[in-house]
Amino acid sequence: MAARARGFGQYSGVARAIERVGERWALLIVRDLLVGPRRYGDLKASLPRIPTNILADRLRELQESGVVRRVPTVRGGYELTPLGRELEPVVLALERWGWSVLGDPGEEERVSHEALAVALRSAFRPEAAASEPATEYVLHVGPASVAAVVDGPTLDVVPIGPDAVPQPRPSEPAGAAGASVEFALEPSQLRDLIAGRADAATVPVLAGDDDGVARFARTFHIEPADPPDDAAGGLGASAA
């Protein structure tokens, strides 16, 4: 059998997976396509720092790997294949891990509509939501906005706003009359709210019931990672 040109020389599932989707930007493209089909320009807008030639290369490589395919009915459109959609639990698990160690946003780091949608899907706690009233959350984080409908243990979340890729908006959940809330946060405030570190009462509610933000915090949660021992002085104290 011929050697793989860019392989790791490892007969391993992890090695093979990284060979297919481990190149720089590849998993972020997969993340965005988990939200729905996207045109080339949509992907470029969501990932503004990716050079156009690299985006074209990654899309070609992901197609060759069987992860992405062209959308015949959409000019310049791409979507995940069934094989690509099997990456969803992997991407959501990686998203949860990343949020647990997120830190403060960098000066030029932004939140896209797609990134916000995937963050909420990764933070969703169906067991907690099952005991809460059905609610539609309209959430604005910087320039990104999503509508998330929670109905028992189910979640439907889509990007919204004038520059979001048009998609069917989730319908209002059954029995959710009046159970809606709209609020806006800075990225670091969203991090603290999802981590359980923020006081929900201090978040200004743009519309809806006052308990909506606290209900959101119970429904969407990612446990933050413990700080490294050396950051807390533990390793230094032991060494001393």
TrEMBL record:
GO molecular function, one term: DNA binding
HTH hxlR-type domain sequence ranges: 12-106
PROSITE patterns per the UniProt record, alphabetical: HTH_HXLR
Keywords per UniProt: DNA-binding, Transcription, Transcription regulation
Pfam families: HxlR (PF01638)
SUPFAM superfamilies per record: Winged helix' DNA-binding domain
Domain of life: Bacteria
The name this protein goes by in its record: Transcriptional regulator
Organism in which the protein naturally occurs: Agromyces kandeliae
Lineage, top ranks: Bacteria, Bacillati, Actinomycetota, Actinomycetes, Micrococcales
